[in-house]
Amino acid sequence: MRTLGGTIDGAIRPERPLASGTNGERRPAPLTFLVLLWLSLVVAFGVLVTLIVTIIIDGQGQFTGRLLSEYPASSPDRAGARPAILGSAWVIATTAIMTIPLGIAAAVHLEEFADKRNWFNRMIELNVQNLAAVPSIVYGLLALAFLSLLGVRDKNIVIGGALALSLLILPVIIIATREALRAVPTEIREGSLALGATQWQTTWRQTLPSAVPGIATGSILALSRALGEAAPLLVLGALVFVSFDPSGILSGYTTLPIQIFNWTGRPQEGFHQLAAATSVLLLGVLVLMNGLAIYIRNRFQKRW
Amino acid sequence: MNLTHSTMRGSVKIVAVGNLDLIARGRPAEFRHRGLTLATRPTAMAALLEVGRDPDSIVLVPTNLNDMPLTEFVDILHSLAHVPVIAGIVPGCSAQAVSELFDHGISSTVALPTSPGRLADAVRASRTPEQTEELVIEVGNLTLDDARHRVTWFEKEVTLAPKNFEILRFMLVAHPRVIPLQELMKHVGDNPQNRAVRARVAIGRLRAAFSDAEPRHDTPIETVHRIGYRLRL
Amino acid sequence: MIDRAGEKIESIVPHEGPGVRINARPADGFLPDEPRGILQCENVDVYYGSFRAVTGVDLKFGLHEITALIGPSGCGKSTLLRSLNRMNDLVDGARVEGRVLFDGEDIYGSKVDAIEVRRRIGMVFQKPNPFPKSIYDNIAYGPRVTGMRVDSMDDLVEEALTKAALWGEVKDKLKQSAYSLSGGQQQRLCIARTIAVKPDVILMDEPCSALDPIATVRIEDLMHELRREYTIVIVTHNMQQAARVADRTAFFTAFADEGTGDRTGVLVEFGKTTQIFEHPTDQRTEDYISGRFG
Q1: What are the boundaries of each domain within chain C?
Q2: ipTM for the complex?
Q3: Class of domain A76-300
C-alpha cells in the first residue's frame, strides 16, 4: 500500500502542497540557466541574421539574370557566374554518383553483415567515425596525391574535384546510412528471416527500403556540405577564371565557392557585390537542399 | 478511526437524556441516514425506563444532567444491562469530571450538540470488542476481518481480490492443518476447467499480495511439496 | 522408445494429396503418455560466447501437440526456443551444443541449410512485427522469398488468412498497410504470414504478452485450431495460458554458476500439463507455479 507522502524504507518525502503559489521552474537557479540559454541563442542567431542581411544588402544590386547567364569578365558590369553554377552542378552530380552507392554498400556491410565482435570491423568502424571529423583540406591533399600517383597532369578536372569531395562526404554518408539502418527495428529483420528469407533478401527487401528516407536525408545533407566546400578544390588547383561551360567529367571547371573566393579578392567594389550576390545564390541552393532533406525526413518517417 | 459509516449494520437506537435541540444538530432523518435512531427522554429516570424496554440501545447523557448524579446514572446503566454510555460534553464541563466518567465505564464522549457524523463515530467507538470479535480471525501477525474485507499482515494492509480473499479465509479457518491441493481446488470458483492452475495461481497472487504489503517478512504461505499448502504463522 | 516414436511419425505425417487432411489427434483430451517427437532436443547447451545460457536440455515436442515452456525470467526458455529454428545463428557468438533433431535430422548438421530450417520451423514473436507493407504483401512475402511454386498467390493469401481467423476482418482491405490493424490482428497476421510458407512447426515466443485479454483469447483459440495441422511450441509467462493451451508443459529454471555467477537455465520437469500443475514431481516446479519466485 502506497499512501500519499508515504515512506519507502524509511525515506520520507517532504510534503509540499501542490498549490504552493510558487513555480519550481522560476526559482533563481533554473531561471539563471534559462536566461543564459536564451542569451546564447540570441547571440548565435543575431550573428547569423546580421551576416545574411549584410550579404543581401551588398549583393542586391548585382542580383540580376546576368549573374546566371554570363561568364566572368574583367569588368563587374559584364561578369556572371554561369560556369561556376554549371561547374558546381557537374561536380556535385559526379560526387553523388560516386559516393552514395559506395557509402550505402559500406554501411550495409558494416551494419548487417560484419561480425561486430571482430577487431578488424571494429577498427574500421572507429576510423569511419573519426574520418568524418577530418578537416576538408586534408581530403584535398589526399586527392591531389592520388591523382599524382595516377599520373594525371591537369588535376583541375571535374572528376578530380568530385574525388576530393567524395572522400570528404563518404564517412558522413556511411554514418547517416548506418543510423537509418539501425532505426529499422530488429523485429522486422527477425520476422523476415524466420520466414526462411536469406540475410541478403532481408536486407534488400525489408531493411534497405525502410531506411531509404533516412539515407536520402543524410545523403542530401552530405552533398550540401560538399557544395559549400572550396578548400579541397583549391588545393587541386581549381581555376578561378573560367570562361567556358564544363562539358564532361574530364573538363576544367570552377564552382560557386571558388568563384566567390575569387571575386572577394578583387579590388573593385563591383566584384565584391557580385560575390555577395553569388553567396546569396549559394545560400539559397543550400537552404533548398536542406529543406528537401527535412521534407523527406518528415514525409516518409516510419513510426514503428 | 478510518471506518466509514457503510460498515455499520442496521440501525442503532440512541436514548438521549434532555431536549433534542440541545443534543442534536441536524434533522432526525440525517441521523437515521447514519444508522442512528434518536429517542430523547426529558429525565434520567425516563431514559432508564426506555433502556429497560430496549436493552440493545446506547445511552447518550449530557454532562449537565440535573435530576440525578451523573456517575450514579452511569453505574445503574452498567449494572442493569451493560448498556454502553456516551457522555455528551456540554460547555463548562471540567476535564476532571470527564475522566471520572471514564472511570465509571463510559465508552466514549461527544461534544453537544452533536452532528450525525460525530455521533456515529462515538457509537462505533463505544462498541465493545465482544461485539465484533467473532468476525475477525487473528492468527499470529495475520488478521482477517471478514465483515470489512480487510487483511492485515504485520499491521500492513494486504490488498486482495475477492476470490483470493475467500481462499485465504479458508486457509485461515483450516490453520494449522495442511490443505491439500484438491481441497483448495474446490474454492476457486465454479468453472471446472483448470482448477489446479487457478488454485496455484491464487496462491501465487496471495504470496505476491503479502510481499507487496510487507516485503521484509517471508510470506506466510508454505508449500508442502506434493501435498498442498499451509499457513505458517 | 525413441525408435517406436520415430516409426509413428512416418505413419502419421500426412502424405501429399488433394484435400487429404489427417488429424493426428483422434479427439481432444486424448494424449499419449509419451510425445511422438517431431522435434527433439538431445542434451542441448546454448552458449553466447563463453556464457552458457541453457544446459543439458532433453525434450521432445510432440507432433500436433502444443508444448509450453514456462519458467522465471532469465531461465533460458526463449533462448532455447530460438535455437530450435536457428534464429540464434543471427546473434554474434551464439552456438549450440548437443543435437536438435527435426524429423530425425540434426538441424545443426554441417550440410543443413539454416534458411530451410527456418522455413520448416516458423516463428512468431513477442511483439507483433508485421512488415511495413500491405496486408497482402505481408502474407505473400514468405512464399516469394522462399521461391515457393504457387498456382495462385491470391488463393494462398486467402488460405493463410482464413487459417489465422483473420480473413473475415481483412478481406476488404488487403491492400491497406498492415499497420492499420490492431495489435491482436497484427499478431494473427504474423501467424498467417508464418502459415503461408507451410511450416511443420510454429514456435511462439510469448505471443500474447503485448496483447489485451480479448486479443489473447482469440490467439489462444487460434492455437487450438492450428494444433490440428501444426506442432506448436510456445514460451509463456502466463501459467493460466500454459494450462489453457498446452498439452504438455516444460518447466525451466536457472541456477547460478558458483564461479562466475552467470545464470544458466536447466529443464526441471516435463510432462502433461495437467500433471505438471496437479502433481509436479519437483519442488521447484510447485514453488514456481504457486508464485514462490518469479
Answers
A1: 37-129+200-289
A2: 0.85
A3: mainly alpha
